[in-house]
Amino acid sequence: MSATHGSANGTTTATTAAWDYEVFWSEALKELQEQLTAQEFETWLRKLSYLRSAESEVVISVPSSFYRSQVESRYQRGLEQTLRDLSGQSIRVEFVVDKATAAAIAEEEAATGNDKTSARRPDARLEPRSSAAPPPPARRAHRQLNQEYNFARFVEGESNSFALNAAMAIANNPGRSYNPCLIYGSVGLGKTHLLQAIGNEVHRQLTDLKVVYVTVETFTNEFIQSIKEKTGHRFKNRYRSADVLLIDDVQFLQGKVETQHELFHTFNALYDAKKQMVFSSDRPVAELKALPDRLINRFERGLNVDLQPPSYETRIAILRQKVEERQIDIGDDVIELISRNVRTNVRDLEKALTKLVAYAELVERTISIDIANRELRDLFSRPDSRNIGVDAIQRTVAEFFSLTANDLRGKKRTKAIAFPRQVAMYITRRLTEYSTTEVGNEFGGRDHTTVMYACQKVEERMKTDATLEPTIQQIIRSLSPPEID
Ligand code: ADP
Ligand code: MG
């Protein structure tokens, strides 16, 4: 089955042919089936059948008026929303009691002895609607969004406060201010969390708005598939009918020319319609070098906010919140220990906690400082930063590459200097408490985004160049006395 009809000549706004509605209807049912328990689906939706459609309406038969009232109160809204998501237009769902369907179902059930509904409700039709039907459930969780990524669970600190406040403002007033918005920062600092928190909040507050969250990876895959299956118009509809479009990790657009093109047009359509768009990227726009100018230009149009690694105090606050949420038996001393030693990002803080929780569960012991120190040795395996200054790092790295520390702090950007400088910045970030702004200052007054980019580059290169990590380890060893332990 496919809905390949329609936009071959580019007239996507033409009325969808009636037979397409049947396709949308069965797709909508499938989507609902995924969201409901098997029993709920069997009880209420299996017995619906498509009868016909008219302009902006599908007519569905139900076996009884009891059924109709149940299905209307429970699912009509959700079905209509799903139809709108799928088709990009409003389609009303009309339920009619159809004797023929009822008779067919009765016959089938007599044969299989399988009527769950009436078995539980011998004369359901007589029950007053209010007691028979539980109140319609609160709006279902958005399928693409993780409920846990909400604003309440996002700990505010200096490092993320601008991005967090922008995200909250957007969620409260999508499409009105800060459109588009780009949230950037390196891995594990909360980009996905914030994007999804916007989606969850809009979905919760403004039930009629269509929220679409997608990673660039998924967007690309769906796009390719839509070409293969000739369902391009559905793909376009899906994204161009969004009221709030959240696209995660746009750095992965690099090198994907066709997808860039598609996103560019999606952007324009939504921008013109004043729909909200929020993007995330692991680096600032200026460093999305492999993207075409016209796309860069689109990202630059709105608000760009960054996420920085959390400070010591914020790391403590984040850990405290997570310990409380997960009801973990860990004392403040251990929280402080982790905060002192894990400075990279929030994901690593979570990793440390998860490891301790696993230990405590398996060994059934309360986590002491000694246990934490031992179990988290890998995560902590960085020399104590307090004794290492940026000067020493610059000297050591320069020496290793046969340069001078002044070269690393200077203006020259030749390859022979640029790479060692990136390595030095990376090591500084790994070993010290310096923020990216401070590191930038130490390296000739460079911008913090340059430091972020440098660290990113080194990490990327480590993935493809197996000699780099050992080289960096070697530099680190020559910097510091052997580890205490
Ligand atoms: P990114 O997308 O930037 O790589 P994520 O959004 O996946 O990072 O965040 C990594 C983890 O850290 C997630 O589990 C997220 O919930 C958590 N996290 C990030 N920032 C915060 C914060 N400020 N408060 C609480 N949890 C956070
Ligand atoms: Mg992410």
SSE diagram, text form:
Layout (H helix, E strand, L loop, with lengths): L17 H18 L2 H7 L4 E6 L2 E6 L2 H23 L4 E6 L1 H14 L3 H5 L8 H4 L28 H12 L8 E4 L6 H15 L5 E5 H13 L3 H9 L3 E5 L8 H16 L3 E6 L11 H8 L2 E4 L5 H14 L6 H10 L4 H18 L5 H7 L1 H4 L9 H11 L4 H5 L5 H17 L4 H7 L5 H17 L3 H12 L6
Bound molecules: adenosine-5'-diphosphate, magnesium ion
**Whole-number total of structural domains:** 4
Which CATH architecture of the largest domain?
3-Layer(aba) Sandwich
Strand order of the largest sheet: 5-6-7-4-8
In whole angstroms, how far apart are the ends?
64 Å
Q: Over the alpha carbons, how many angstroms does the gyration radius reach?
A: 28 Å
| CATH topology type of the largest domain | Rossmann fold
> What is the highest CATH level, the class of the largest domain?
Alpha Beta
Helical content (DSSP H or I, runs of 4+): 40-55%
Counting DSSP H or I runs of 4 or more residues, the number of helices is 23
Uncertain runs are 1-15, 113-137
